[in-house]
Automatic annotation (TrEMBL):
<feature type="transmembrane region" description="Helical">
    <location>
        <begin position="273"/>
        <end position="295"/>
    </location>
</feature>
<keyword id="KW-0256">Endoplasmic reticulum</keyword>
<feature type="transmembrane region" description="Helical">
    <location>
        <begin position="250"/>
        <end position="267"/>
    </location>
</feature>
<keyword id="KW-0808">Transferase</keyword>
<keyword id="KW-0472">Membrane</keyword>
<protein>
    <recommendedName>
        <fullName>dolichol kinase</fullName>
        <ecNumber>2.7.1.108</ecNumber>
    </recommendedName>
</protein>
<keyword id="KW-0418">Kinase</keyword>
<keyword id="KW-1133">Transmembrane helix</keyword>
<feature type="transmembrane region" description="Helical">
    <location>
        <begin position="117"/>
        <end position="133"/>
    </location>
</feature>
<feature type="transmembrane region" description="Helical">
    <location>
        <begin position="86"/>
        <end position="105"/>
    </location>
</feature>
<dbReference type="InterPro" id="IPR032974">
    <property type="entry name" value="Polypren_kinase"/>
</dbReference>
<feature type="transmembrane region" description="Helical">
    <location>
        <begin position="139"/>
        <end position="158"/>
    </location>
</feature>
<feature type="transmembrane region" description="Helical">
    <location>
        <begin position="42"/>
        <end position="66"/>
    </location>
</feature>
<keyword id="KW-0812">Transmembrane</keyword>
<dbReference type="GO" id="GO:0005789">
    <property type="term" value="C:endoplasmic reticulum membrane"/>
</dbReference>
<feature type="transmembrane region" description="Helical">
    <location>
        <begin position="12"/>
        <end position="30"/>
    </location>
</feature>
<feature type="transmembrane region" description="Helical">
    <location>
        <begin position="210"/>
        <end position="229"/>
    </location>
</feature>
Length: 312
């Protein structure tokens, strides 16, 4: 399928990617060179990258520099009631995530898997709503959020003041075995996992969205989350050489299959509701369960690709 994004989204995505790449590479260079790093140097570097991105967008869209921000603002909010509702829903999910993070960081009890999976819920809700109503805006938003995550992690990792202390306090409590204090990648894994199908098969309109695009939500947002929660609560039989349980894997199979059936209903692709295709969905869920059971890390990235391969 030949998918063409509008020039505005393409320009913003390319500009954000260029600017963020510069910030990340320069941050890595500073980290590896063991040179003393100043907050002023980081902000100067950030300002340079933002300026280059700003000029890039203005040049690509052939608009005056002073009109770039109003132009992009109009682009985002123009789209009718459906887009306004989508943006409001995203804002609610984002606010819920931030409030939950702050509350969790200030509590005294230990952060568990259930706490971490809350973010899987909010990101999955954002993905489902975006795929249903505006996949092109969703693609743009995902790229911008990924760029924001990269910049935030650079600030935290390089201890750029005055934000590094607060970011450390908010993020460290959610660390798991896939992260270290010096580099936290879990948010990227979650973002890539849930939204990777949208980049494997780009969709500019809702009519171009297929069941494949829900592979990330089904495998990571639902399946992996239920495997972790049910495995922690009911897991008794462990896989050989693994901390993960057979009960958790079964929860993944059931929940992922149900999620995909609901996605079929959401897409109104009722022609897929055949016994043969259901067996195919079930087979894909079993394969995902096996992969999740043997993976020690990065399963959030691997599972969507496995699920994507089994869907159409």
């Amino acid at each position: 399928m030949d998918v063409q994004f509008d020039p505005i989204s393409s320009s913003v995505i390319s500009a954000a990617s260029i600017g963020t790449t510069w910030i990340v590479l320069s941050s890595v260079w500073n980290k590896r060179s063991l040179r003393p790093h100043s907050s002023a140097a980081f902000y100067a570097n950030f300002l340079f990258a933002a300026t280059v991105a700003y000029i890039w967008v203005a040049h690509r869209l052939s608009i005056p520099y002073v009109n770039v921000i109003p132009f992009l603002f109009d682009y985002v909010i123009t789209g009718g009631k459906a887009r306004h509702c989508l943006l409001l829903f995203w804002l609610i999910c984002l606010s819920a995530s931030v409030i939950f993070m702050i509350a969790a960081a200030n509590q005294t009890q230990e952060i568990t898997t259930v706490h971490r999976k809350f973010f899987h819920l909010t990101v999955s809700l954002i993905a489902v709503a975006g795929l249903q109503y505006d996949p092109q805006l969703t693609t743009l938003a995902v790229v911008l959020v990924a760029c924001a995550f990269a910049c935030i992690e650079c600030i935290r990792s390089l201890q750029v003041q005055p934000f590094a202390g607060w970011l450390d306090g908010a993020c460290i409590v959610f660390l798991d075995e896939q992260d270290s204090h010096s580099l936290i990648l879990t948010p990227f894994y979650l973002l890539v996992g849930v939204f990777s199908p949208l980049f494997l098969s780009p969709a500019a309109t809702a009519s171009q969205v297929t069941l494949k695009h829900f592979a990330g939500v089904a495998t990571v947002g639902v399946g992996d989350s239920m495997a972790a929660i049910c495995g922690r609560r009911f897991g008794r039989t462990k896989w050989p050489g693994s901390r993960k349980s057979v009960e958790g894997s079964l929860a993944l199979v059931v929940s992922q299959s149900i999620a995909l059936l609901l996605a079929i209903h959401l897409l109104k692709k009722y022609e897929l509701l055949t016994f043969g295709y259901f067996c195919y969905i079930l087979l894909g869920a079993f394969v995902c369960a096996i992969v999740e059971g043997v993976c020690r890390s990065a399963d959030n990235i691997i599972l969507p690709f496995v699920g994507y391969w089994f869907l159409r």
